[in-house]
Structure prediction request, 390 residues.
Amino acid sequence: MQPNFENTAIAFELKTDSQLERAYFLFKMIANEPLVRIGTAVTNFAIKAHLPVEGLIRATVFDHFCGGVSEKDCLPVIDKMYEKGVFSILDYSAEGKEVDNQFDFALEKTLEILDFVKEKDAIPFAVFKPSGFGRFKLYEKVSAGTKLTESESAEWGRIINRYEKVCKKAHDLEVALLIDAEESWMQDSADDLALVMMRKYNKEKTIVFNTFQMYRWDRMDYLKEIHKIARDENFKVGAKVVRGAYMEKENERAQEKGYTSPICRSKQETDENFNAAIAYIMEHLEDITIFAGTHNEESTFKLITHMKERNLNPSDENVWFGQLFGMSDHITFNLAAQGYNAVKYVPYGPVRDVMPYLIRRAEENTSVAGQTSRELALLQKERKRRKLDS
Prediction:
């Protein structure tokens, strides 16, 4: 049976009336671009000035887009969603760290989550960001082929060791591990590390997943290249396929530095690239496991169609659908209601540390045409159904 993304009763079943009203209020704020920019500036100032704003942030934007401040804090949310057939991924979302002890802390968090995942059926994946394990500027230097100093080489060795430690543990526990993607000018070195780990740990089954940002026009060729390597060397490809999260920053940097932007020229080209990727993967499911991270209804339906054409069970272990916590509940919960592998990315961490992530969420929602208005329309529909709309 086809999921009905208009079914708001299923989509928002876990939300109380007050949570629904808060969501409606937040997306109305996010729909106002000048307000988002002002709010971002004020929030950044308040946090840097150590003003007592954490309580307000926690009660509004944080609780909507994050599961909690710790793994334990997230458990009630995770358990409630799992009762509705929705899986979770715990994503420690502290960003912008610069020193080794912070990277080691992120590594320990990821290792802890792997143990957590092994014991919790509701959480089928662990995840980390490359810049959580090492300095962005160092990835950038390695990606550019710039010669490293002796101390930088040692630092790069520590990054490799962090990757090795977490991927080996994931393999030993047989827990799937997603590696997120970041900006293009640091991504080549992160891709190379992910490939090394897939070669090593994806021999019997798909453990390590790299992320393919399909708003980049070169990613389809890269996906095919990685698939060819995997076939030649006999390992599985884990492919988390997304559109991408840094479009404005990518285009601005390309213009500023005078090179061709890596981003597709239009949203239509991005959509076509994303849909081509899922079609390609579905033709090669014997070699590739797909995690489709998308808030796009059309692409979700295309993936479902590919599954039906191949007579795949909705819960086939090689096909996963993912959305961010606090967004696109109409997709996630209606997919789960029909038995598909639907997953929520659940960010968590101390309020101050997670603020860069939350600011990025608000800015992305403002810049993605139609995303916020769709959320508002569905929330309004549910408010009317509950007779909250006075």
